[in-house]
Amino acid sequence: MDHIEKLIRDIPKAELHCHIEGTLEPELMFELASRNKIKLPFANPDEIRRAYAFTNLQSFLDIYYQGADVLRTEQDFYDLTWAYLNRAREDNICHTEIFFDPQTHTQRNISFATALNGIHHALEDARKKLNISSHLILCFLRHLSEEDAFTVFKQALPFKEKIIAVGLDSGEAGNPPEKFKRVFDAARSEGFLTVAHAGEEGPANYIWQALELLEASRIDHGVRCTEDEALVTLLKEKQIPLTVCPLSNIKLCVFKTMHDHNIKKLLEKGLCITINSDDPAYFGGYITENYLACHRAFKLTTDDIVQLAKNSINASFLDNEQKTTYLNRINQVVNTL
Ligand code: HPA
Ligand code: ZN
User: Fold this and answer.
1) 21 lines ligand 1 (CB under 6 A)
2) Ligand 1 pocket check for 170: Cβ under 6 Å
3) Do the beta carbons of residue 140 and residue 194 sit within 8 Å?
4) Beta carbon of 57 within 6 Å of any ligand 1 atom
5) Which segments within 60-152 are labelled E, that is strand?
6) Ligand 1: does its nearest atom lie under 6 Å from the Cβ of 103?
7) Which of 66, 105, 197 to mutate to test the pocket of ligand 1 (most atoms within 8 A of CB)?
8) Structural domain boundaries enclosing 83
9) Which of 181, 213, 316, 336 is buried most, with the most CB atoms less than 10 Å from its CB?
């Protein structure tokens, strides 16, 4: 292992773009299917993995929503989240801000509380036993109506203290941020922060909308910002973070190969870029593999890695004191190199 690979593994880092439903490994999918007496259309985990050949975002979403069907009880959501958090510990993730998609579950008559409580308990246990801090972000499914988003938003209000922000995910093309302006207004007036997936498959204009209409603090993906120079300038000047997910972008054919990815260019331009795993069980790698894939393609330097890790802390929703603690820990690791 060269010294950059060791640094990538060892450096404390935050993960800011990870869908908890996207951490469902095929082995756990089988275990939960068996526990809940569900018949999967696959014979074994390897067969599931072979089905993960995606051509675009929608081809992934179809199989991803199908996979989530094995999640039925609070214990299932706990086990899913606990497995991710243990994997995160191995990667030296010190803080994670995970997404969950309540509508994927409420649509199947699984209550909001079942999903929320299972996830939340695992996050609390990780704080105590794994030394990982966390926040939870509720994502609205953008292929559904704004009225549907309002329904889930109302269900979330009794759990408000356990959710830091609302976000927007699922099929982007044809579902612009403006479709959700009123529900995001309502969320902000209840004290939620906001983020949104934008500029993954959708145009740069959707990133503008996420910033101006939804007042997003961060843009999830955002890689198509380069289609609008004024937007790139704004992202740089305001240091609005982009939560980039390199392996996801390759798996979903946003870029043909890692060499074609624009992450290194964005970093060189001085944007606040972070590296994240998105749906690691589906895209072939957790956060370390995402850093390593970028390193292999672009020969990242020590300074690049330190910058990316520090960006992840600065772009988080931690308070300044917590950020300082983690930034100091990064400096300690770098000083022992
Ligand atoms: N984009 C949109 N929706 C999603 C994604 C993504 O990358 N992952 C899970 N839901
Ligand atoms: Zn995502």
Assistant:
1) no
2) yes
3) no
4) yes
5) 93-100, 133-141
6) no
7) 197
8) 3-335
9) 316
pTM for the whole structure: 0.98
The pLDDT of 37-47, averaged and rounded, is 95
Count of domains observed in the chain: 1
C-alpha of residue 105 to centroid of ligand 1, in Å: 16
Q: Judge whether 229 counts as a catalytic residue.
A: no
Is residue 166 within 8 A of residue 214, CB to CB? The reply is no
Is 2 a residue whose pLDDT tops 90?
Answer: no
- Ligand 2 centroid to Cα of residue 60, in Å, is 11
**How far apart are the CA of 35 and the centre of ligand 1, in A?**
27
Best residue among 200, 201, 207, 242 to mutate for probing ligand 1's pocket (most ligand atoms within 8 Å of CB) is 200
In whole angstroms, give the CA distance from residue 225 to residue 197.
12
Span 122-137, average pLDDT: 98
CATH number at residue 281: 3.20.20.140
User: Angle at the Cα of 20 (from 116 to 185), degrees rounded to 5?
Assistant: 65
pLDDT band at 70 (very low <50, low <70, confident <90, very high): very high
pLDDT band of 1, cuts 50, 70, 90: low
Buried-state track 150-185, b at ≥16 Cβ within 10 A, e below 16 = bbbbebbeebeebbbbbbbbbbbeebbbbbbbebbe
Show Cβ contacts of residue 4 under 8 Å, excluding neighbours closer than 6 positions. 295, 300, 301, 302, 305
C-alpha–C-alpha distance, residues 95 and 287, integer Å: 12
The arithmetic mean of pLDDT across residues 280-305, rounded, is 97
Of 89, 79, 195, nearest to 137 by C-alpha is 195
Sheet hosting strand 218-221, strand order edge to edge: 13-19, 93-100, 133-141, 165-169, 193-198, 218-221, 242-244, 273-275
Q: Which residue's CA is minimally distant from atom 7 of ligand 1?
A: 278
